Structure formats: C-alpha cells, structure tokens
Hints:
Layout: H1 20-24, H2 28-42, H3 45-75, E1 78-80, H4 91-103, E2 112-117, E3 122-129, E4 134-141, E5 144-151, H5 152-158, E6 160-172, E7 175-187, E8 193-204, H6 212-223, E9 228-236, E10 239-246, E11 254-259, E12 267-270, H7 271-277, E13 279-284, E14 293-300, E15 306-313
Antiparallel strand pairs: 1-8, 2-3, 3-4, 4-5, 6-7, 7-8, 9-10, 10-11, 11-12, 13-14, 14-15
Amino acid sequence: MTSPAPAPAPDGRAESEPALEELLGPGPEEADAAAKDSADAREPEAARGTRAVLRRHWRFVTVSAVLLLALGIGIGWAVFAPPSDAIALTAEQQERRALLEDESDFDPGTLRAVGQDDDSGAIVWLGTKGEGDLTCAVVDVDDATQSQCQRTSDFQNVGINVAVMRPGETVDEVTAVFTTINAYIVVATDGDPIASIQQWDSSSSILAQFVGDERTRAEELVAQGFEMNLSVVGYFRDEPVWMANRYGETVEPEACLIVDAAQLDAVCLPSTTAIEVGLSTFVSDDGSGSGPGSSLTLAFTASQTPYLTITEARAG
C-alpha cells in the first residue's frame, strides 16, 4: 500500500524541501542582530565591564595618536630612526662610541646607535649599565651632549626622553634664539628600540620680563653668558637672587645661582647635578665668609621647578 504523497506547499515546494533563505542562512543584518541579542542575553556583568574597559582603552589610544600627530605638526618634523643595524658609523662616531663605553661604564658590547638625523646633526646612543639593570640613552649634537637613564623594566614600558639645548645667535639686546633637540626612544613591537628625533627653534625675549634696576642687571648677566632661563627666584637683603643656565667649560649647560647682595661669584653646577643636589651658598653678615650669616639653597621639585630656601645661622 502506497502512502499518499505530501501536499505541495503553497509556493510549489514540498513541505520537507528547505527554502532558499534557509539554505543560505540569515543575511548580514539579521545575523548581526541575532548575534547581538544572543550575546546580550548571556553576557555576564564582568564581561560587560571588560568590554567597557576595552572601549575606553581604544578611545585613549585614538586620542594619544591624535596628540602625537598634533605634536609632530606643531614642532615641524619628527624623524623615526631606522633599525640600529642600518646606521653606518663614521670613524669619528666609532671613536665616540668607544669613548662612551670606556668613560660612562656601559656594559660591554651593549652601546649602539639607534637613531641619527642629518639636519640637526644628532645621533642617539643606547646601552645598558649595571649588568642590564639600567638602560641609558645619550644624545650627541655637535659638541653638546646629554644623557638619561631608566631602570630597564621601566624603559620597556615608557621609554626614555632626552633633550639637548644648544645656543643660537642673539638677535638683539632683548631677544636670543636657541635650538632644542629632543630624542624619545621606545621599544618597537619587534623588540628593537627606535628613536624619534625632534628639533625646534625658540625665540625668547629674556630681558622683556624685567624693568628698572632688574632690567639693567639682567642685561649685565646676559652679557656674561647667562642667557638661558634667566629668572629671579627670590630676594635676599632687598636684592634679587637669580637663577640662569649658561654654557661653561663642559658640553653640558650649567645651572647657576647668583646672589646680588653677596657680591660673590655665581655658584654653578652641571644642570643634571644641580637638579639632583641643588645649589647652595653661604653669605656671612660681615662679608668674611664665616661667622653669623645666611645659607641660601636653590632646590628643584620633581617637575624641576626651582625654589629658594634662606636659613639664618646665628652665633650662640
């Protein structure tokens, strides 16, 4: 006995025959909607929090990228160095590397050039000290040099930033021009360090901020070479106390403390040393250099903001 064939569906297909839509599956819009409904239905509270964190993270990355782009445009240019093995050193640069290795206690064989720029003449060196505990960068620009060290674990995360300032020409009695070369060294995703080298020129009317007797004194100090960061940090015996930077006998700029009321020579140290330990001088009441008097100390906050402390020393 033969069973009757099933009645055809209204559109002519047998009931067991799948529709074309069923064979192809849902369209993209229907699939996305279904997936979202399914994910929302089973997404635990912790997963929602995680996704929110990821959204905030990507928003931060986007903002950071925009800021970096704006920084590059504002400065004028930025050079990302080629891999270090692509930098061919001149004979003079090879001698410089050997000198740094010998005098700066770099771990043997670790110092290498990781970036250079022909326009500014900058070359960036990177190596380790203390059997790898510290990672240190050195930036050479002509005869000027500056260095900075980080714990290697910190360097892997945040990199190292080193800035070198070199004096330019004095345009007129109130305007001086100087050039800053900044190198930022980070670790790329492949593990190799790369250097971003940036340069900008600054015109500073360093004398325009002073008036009267202070203006006259500031002009004298500029003529003596104190033409960078000249400022009054306080007053002692009704006379200004000055801080300024100048280039001395070393390639690193000096930070100097000048106490007008003391009639003494400026107290100067290399800038990096001055930031670490401060600048101090003693002024005796009778000008003999001993006995009752006052100690003046210029120290720096963690953000390198200077502040003056005056302590009186009295007999008895």
